[in-house]
Amino acid sequence: MRLIDSRVLAPDSTARRAIARVVANQAGSRGLLVFAAADTHVHWIATCSREVAGELARRIGGSLSKRLRLPVAFEASRFVPVWDQAHLTRAVLYVLRQREHHDVSADPTLDGTSLPDLLGWRLLGPNADAYVARTAALLPRLRRTDFLELAGLGELQPAAEARADLAEAAAAAFGLAEVSGITRAHVLAKRAAVHAGLRCDVHLDTIAASLRVCLRSAQRMRAEPADDGAVKAVGYQLAIRATLRRRGAEREQDVPLRRSA
Length: 261
Prior knowledge:
Structural class: mainly alpha
Number of helices: 12
Helix content: 40-55%
């Protein structure tokens, strides 16, 4: 799916997360397998009829136009039928390799792809577990190690340091632009962030300040049970950011120093 003038569709993480939530909300219960947003277009694969695929494209396009306030329309979507298991596997790998296929490196945190969902690094709705199970059942030749290789970040462990990135990690774990908000997703994100921060031994007042909530609200969320998968997803998002910072520092150290004459 691309706009009629092929302008950039996903210029930043906010847009990429919006795309992810729209695709998951519209197609998650109707056979969605994988998706990925390049800079100017979106690919997705779903196990459905051609008629259902057309309806999904219309719904996704309409929702994206509203969420991203797009000034132009989408061009007519192009659909390719999947003929057999080998074709499906190749198609999935093609979609998930959009960054390298188009030489686009603007999404280091993978907000615009379904890889975080497949790896437990993000939860885009109440059907997250069913989505992962369906994908695993239909793609038996692709294992977690394959998705990790595509993500390019290695096998992460939930980070032990949460002070710097807690609010951003919580937003990313739920596909939100930020944690400030009153929707169910925002509430769950903040609750998971509180519990993730406590697991990292961060003081509750520091957590409250990071999430921009009062201490009483943080105390209430501490007392409320949090989904373990959601707390781990926040931890994984913290680990993603720590990994990217470490790699950036290593690249800077590898740059040779030049002396002026």
